[in-house]
Backbone:
């Protein structure tokens, strides 16, 4: 084992900042990262064991114990559950005879839960040995377990045809579907790679930034920061080296549009990174991609290789002297918070994905403390179109405050879940018509993921845009049959608990307390005071360091605002206080052991 | 650019040397902003959030935000004081803090803050987590029941090669601070003492040294936390 690990650390020049890659390769090679490997890595990188361990133990997809020859991850997100995940879970558990976080005694398979894997339009879905399985049914699960017992290769376990577009390509071969249902200026088919790069090499970087500013495009990752301004800050920041990081972490439950862009328009994205590099004076780009999308990595590498071979990446790009830019792919290892830009940087440096204190902002001090632009996948794609067609053209789409288009990820209770590129400014009502939702049956729409808003039908005339409903692009449609408090609010709150990096006291502690309050209400032990407490306690989270903590109470606060009656129906009307403590339940085990009956 | 910056704290005109954090700039002006995870001489990591202030309408941590010209800082404002008090209470209910039996009682900053904020009973339910005590190291005891995860020890204590002796493990509400099995065994007396001193609570204890200073003559037995800052006479320029 020692030599195997040594080889890996040497592959990355024993560079601490590449610890993520070292750990991923180690796990690929050994199936998990046993203590012996950790000690070897620590020795090679001149770190202590706990230094290495703090990174390993942060990420969900790293295992320190053997996980079985088939490592099965089932998605526990809201949409997976409403699409039938519970039956799928039950079948896996029954067929394999194990529960979550267990491995079969013969070492065949291990079963694990995971947060949203970006397949909401084709749930229930699973990741098994880095391959994606979609639209699972209990029957399919039985087949798959049978295949596992027969020792089939993971790639031979697919029974359906591969998905559409590049999902069929030799380097992907996946059953994932794109479900692109509406195209616009970003997703359009006529894109010719390289044109924008050919155009910019004759432009002054300052003019590029001006054009981007003129387009008024704002970041598509959720925060909506003006892209031109971000680039300008980075360009003007002093630093020997500058970096462009593309944020393809896409961890917000309900969002999957970046996955589709990566599959179909990788060249467009890389072209956007090159343009950003030219504009701010960066020579290196990093595509930080979530571990769930590992199945795309080989394909993406090949696209990069093609771009290099044709000199759209590399040195003196397209003959422009001194214009050097290359891109490497950095995989994450399972942590939603790594989508936060400074956590993403920490992670790309091989560390725990803990957000940094700001200021300083990444544009001043980012990757390796150098000025860094972090942009979303979609932002970088849209930028190419701005360069090709001009800022004024781009402004002709959308509204005054929200220019251009937005690629939406739509899932839940509707006929046509998938990816839609629409101009900003459509109302939720319009969207519901577009995706074939039975409007009279829609109870609520979750806009912008767990950190966004849960809106009720009387707000369906609100419009998507920075001026009203700002969103990173996800809409989850919930029909009348859904139990909002249990299926949605509780699920999202638990998501935030699980995904907190744990370093702010507020974000580490409060969501758990809120979840317990919610459970008390769901268990019919709630009183009005509990609702008031949730409203008060939720405010404390605003003092958290990053957006995760700051919005972790949103599922509760937003549903309390728009669906308060659901809570009120559940609380006890004639009681002012209830400790929530169930003496009989607490004594149950003791009573059983002693053979006594509790009578209180 | 002038070497000094002008700003206000709760309306009071202040002045301080440029290039320092808000907490330190406030201290120069005799104003105490409560801190817990911050430690002099160690790079700040805003993890406890107790030093939260409002600057031009936005919440920020005073230990990590550099002071800037014209900042209007809100410090002793009702909702901010209430927020800080909540945070102290949160830290109490998150762990198991039985102060009367604690070696650090009287020297504990968490306890001192609770006194300062006049906390009688926390508004949150106690979580009573099951946590372990790690006594496997020759020089120190790591008492997990009392760890408030402030990261002071992680940031302040390293070996000569820059390797961590204390580190976070896991994430979310399962995060804990652990001691390196090997380096923990090699701790010098000096580093062990430093670790105990750096820890704001009684989570790192040097073995057999817990009661060297008797209860009753400890740091916060006679004066409130922060009073040293507030009692300094400032000569206004
Ligand atoms: C908890 C959290 C998760 C985030 N996840 C993502 C993500 O998956 N993808 C993304 O582009 N931005 C994400 N963001 C926003 C980023 O911090 C950042 O604003 C964005 O990547 C900037 O790119 P843009 O300006 O192009 O939108 C997240 C923010 C937070 C607080
Ligand atoms: S808010 Fe939560 S996720 Fe963000 S830095 Fe703080 S603890 Fe980490
Ligand atoms: S041991 Fe002490 S210094 Fe270290 S994190 Fe815990 S409370 Fe902070
Ligand atoms: S003292 Fe500033 S966040 Fe802890
Ligand atoms: S008195 Fe605070 S931890 Fe012991």
Residues:
């Amino acid at each position: 084992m020692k030599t195997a690990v040594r080889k890996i650390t040497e592959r990355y020049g024993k560079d601490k900042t590449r610890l993520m890659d070292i750990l991923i390769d180690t796990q690929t090679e050994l199936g998990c990262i046993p203590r012996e490997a950790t000690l070897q890595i620590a020795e090679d990188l001149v770190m202590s064991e706990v230094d290495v361990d703090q990174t390993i133990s942060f990420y969900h997809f790293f295992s320190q114990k053997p996980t079985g020859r088939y490592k099965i991850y089932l998605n526990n997100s809201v949409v997976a559950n409403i699409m039938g995940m519970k039956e799928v879970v039950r079948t896996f558990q029954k067929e394999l005879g194990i529960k979550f976080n267990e491995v079969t005694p013969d070492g065949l398979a291990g079963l694990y839960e995971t947060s949203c894997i970006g397949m909401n339009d084709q749930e229930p879905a699973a990741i098994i040995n880095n391959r994606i399985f979609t639209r699972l049914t209990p029957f399919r699960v039985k087949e798959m377990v049978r295949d596992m017992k027969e020792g089939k290769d993971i790639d031979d376990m697919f029974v359906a045809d591969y998905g559409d577009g590049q999902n069929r390509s030799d380097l992907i071969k996946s059953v994932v579907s794109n479900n692109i249902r509406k195209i616009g200026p970003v997703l359009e088919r006529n894109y010719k790679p390289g044109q924008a790069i050919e155009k910019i090499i004759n432009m002054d970087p300052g003019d590029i930034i001006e054009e981007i500013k003129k387009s008024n495009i704002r970041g598509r990752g959720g925060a909506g920061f003006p892209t031109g301004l971000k680039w300008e800050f980075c360009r003007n920041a002093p630093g020997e080296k500058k970096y462009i990081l593309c944020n393809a972490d896409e961890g917000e439950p309900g969002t999957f549009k970046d996955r589709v862009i990566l599959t179909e328009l990788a060249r467009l994205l890389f072209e956007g990174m090159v343009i950003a590099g030219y504009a701010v004076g960066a020579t290196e780009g990093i595509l930080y991609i979530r571990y769930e999308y590992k199945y795309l990595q080989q394909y993406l590498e090949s696209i990069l290789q093609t771009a290099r071979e044709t000199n759209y990446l590399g040195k003196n790009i397209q003959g422009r002297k001194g214009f050097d830019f290359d891109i490497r792919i950095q995989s994450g290892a399972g942590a939603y918070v790594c989508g936060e830009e400074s956590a993403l940087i920490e992670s790309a440096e091989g560390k725990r994905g803990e957000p940094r204190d700001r200021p300083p902002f990444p544009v001043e001090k980012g990757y390796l403390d150098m000025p860094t632009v972090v942009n979303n996948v979609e932002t970088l794609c849209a930028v190419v179109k701005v360069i090709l067609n001009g800022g004024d053209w781009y402004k002709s789409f959308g509204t005054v405050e929200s220019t251009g288009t937005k690629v939406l990820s739509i899932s839940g209770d509707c006929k046509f879940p998938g990816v839609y590129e629409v101009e900003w400014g459509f109302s939720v009502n319009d969207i519901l018509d577009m995706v074939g939702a039975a409007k009279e049956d829609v109870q609520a729409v979750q806009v912008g993921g767990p950190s966004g808003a849960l809106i009720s039908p009387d707000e369906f005339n609100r419009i998507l845009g920075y001026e009203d409903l700002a969103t990173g692009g996800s809409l989850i449609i919930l029909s009348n049959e859904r139990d909002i408090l249990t299926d949605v609010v509780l699920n999202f709150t638990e998501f935030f608990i699980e995904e907190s990096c744990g370093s702010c006291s507020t974000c580490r502690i409060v969501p758990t307390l809120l979840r317990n309050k919610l459970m008390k209400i769901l268990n019919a032990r709630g009183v009005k005071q509990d609702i008031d407490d949730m409203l008060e306690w939720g405010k404390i989270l605003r003092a958290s360091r990053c957006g995760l903590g700051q919005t972790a109470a949103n599922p509760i606060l937003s549903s309390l605002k728009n669906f308060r009656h659901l809570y009120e129906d559940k609380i006890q009307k004639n009681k002012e206080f209830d400790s929530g403590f169930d003496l009989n339940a607490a004594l149950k085990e003791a009573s059983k052991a002693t053979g006594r009956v509790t009578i209180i | 650019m002038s070497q000094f910056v002008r700003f206000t704290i709760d309306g009071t005109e202040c002045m301080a040397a440029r290039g320092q954090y808000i907490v330190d700039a406030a201290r120069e002006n005799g104003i105490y902003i409560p801190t817990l995870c911050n430690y002099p001489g160690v790079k700040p990591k805003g993890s406890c959030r107790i030093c939260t202030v409002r600057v031009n309408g936005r919440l920020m941590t005073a230990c990590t935000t550099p002071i800037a010209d014209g900042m209007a800082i809100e410090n002793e404002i009702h909702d901010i004081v209430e927020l800080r008090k909540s945070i102290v209470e949160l830290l109490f209910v998150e762990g198991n803090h039985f102060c009367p039996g604690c070696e650090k009682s009287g020297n504990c900053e968490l306890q001192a803050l609770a006194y300062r904020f006049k906390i009688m009973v926390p508004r949150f339910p106690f979580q009573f987590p099951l946590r372990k005590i790690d006594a496997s190291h020759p020089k120190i005891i790591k008492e997990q029941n009392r760890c408030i995860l402030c990261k002071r020890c992680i940031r302040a204590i390293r070996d000569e090669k820059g390797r961590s002796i204390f580190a976070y493990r896991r994430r979310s509400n399962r995060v804990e601070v652990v001691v390196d099995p090997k380096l923990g065994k090699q701790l010098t007396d000096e580093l062990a003492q430093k670790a105990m001193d750096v820890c704001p609570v009684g989570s790192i204890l040097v073995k057999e040294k817990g009661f060297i200073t008797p209860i009753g003559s400890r740091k916060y037995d006679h004066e409130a936390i922060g009073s040293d800052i507030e009692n300094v006479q400032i000569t206004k320029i």
In short: Chain B has a mean pLDDT of 94.
